[in-house]
Please model this.
Amino acid sequence: FKGGIMCKILETERLIIRKLSQNDFDDLAIMLKDVDVMYAWEHGFSDEEVQEWLNNNIKRYEETGMGYFAAINKETGKLVGQIGLVLSVINLESRVTLGYIMKKEFWNMGYAYEGARALIDFTFNVLGEKKVIADIRPENINSVNLAKKLGMVKVSEFIKVYKGKEMVHDVYEIYM
Model:
């Protein structure tokens, strides 16, 4: 999973999940600059922040083999969003964390569920992990509902500091 020249991670019925590249900047910018999409962050990103996001994910691929991945519609070739796995330290414990961000035009079409479900299965069956978590702001109802639909259960909460602001996040888990 770590490194390698293949950028495709997996396929689902409608999606190809692959590593992000610099070629994805324009699509990422559309998504990450949208204040509705970036509701949980409380701001749309600048070009510099989009580039930093992209660079951080490419660095994660090299260091851990994980990161946010591009979710590509197989029929159209269009990027519909990002779905990924990131190593996070929450309450002093390192955990595989699932995340998803979809372009607004592709909300409520089942892409986030389809890709997230495939990555959970991949984490259990290929990476050999026994647990996947998601950290979600409680007011982010769409993400909370998706976590529950995936079979995740709220187990705790913690404070994440982002841009100097303390933000409560709920921790959802699913076990193999």
